[in-house]
Design goal:
The protein is mostly helical and 194 residues long. Helices cover 50% and strands 9% of the residues. Strands 1-2 form a two-stranded antiparallel sheet. Strands 3-4 form a two-stranded parallel ribbon.
């Protein structure tokens, strides 16, 4: 039976390697490289766990739930500052527009809660009114009365068919002869509101 390695030959070739491995330079270098590797792994793990949160852990025989729930909305988080703003200023009206582009009625629920909190606050000695400018088709009949106290529909009076006359009348009042008739006729098709 033959040997896979010739022990004497192998030990001669690696005797120089053994001296390098036993040297203090190699030991300190490997220690530093290992510590840098552990540091890199620790930093990566901290970043991973910092971006995630653990609220509940289910094991087949146990259920662990952490009580601190950090799912605060931005309104709840800054409620003190909002209250302070209305306390020290004379403003009593908030005008909100273009919320209908999100197609989410939950926004209006939160704003209604905020309005109730502001009007029920003992710090503010005035009534705060919220005015919303939204599309008419955003809510159905029941939801309209749920969210709003008053509903004022705004019907546009200018459209491409009547904008010609309205602009001419306004320009006559201003005594303006800036635009030529041909340019005005082309512009009227694109004017929807003034």
């Amino acid at each position: 039976m033959g040997y896979l390695f010739k022990h004497n030959e192998v030990s001669k070739d690696f005797s120089e390697m053994k001296d390098v491995i036993d040297s203090s330079y190699f030991k300190y270098s490997s220690l530093i490289i290992s510590l840098l590797g552990f540091y890199y792994i620790a930093v990566k793990l901290v970043r991973i766990f910092n971006n995630s949160k653990l609220n509940k852990l289910n094991i087949p025989s146990a259920n662990i739930e952490i009580g601190d729930n950090n799912d605060k909305s931005i309104l709840n988080h800054h409620l003190d500052e909002i209250l302070y703003f209305f306390e020290v200023t004379d403003y009593n009206t908030v005008i909100i527009e273009d919320l209908d582009r999100f197609n989410d009625t939950e926004i209006f629920t939160k704003l209604r809660e905020l309005n109730n909190l502001l009007n029920g606050s003992k710090q503010i000695n005035k009534k705060i009114v919220f005015i919303y400018a939204i599309r008419d088709d955003m809510f159905q009949d029941k939801d309209r009365t749920k969210f709003f106290d008053f509903i004022i529909p705004v019907i546009p009076i200018i459209n491409p068919s009547n904008s010609n006359e309205i602009i001419k009348n306004k320009l006559k009042k201003l005594n303006s002869k800036i635009f030529q008739q041909r340019i005005l006729l082309m512009m009227f098709l694109f004017l929807l509101k003034i």
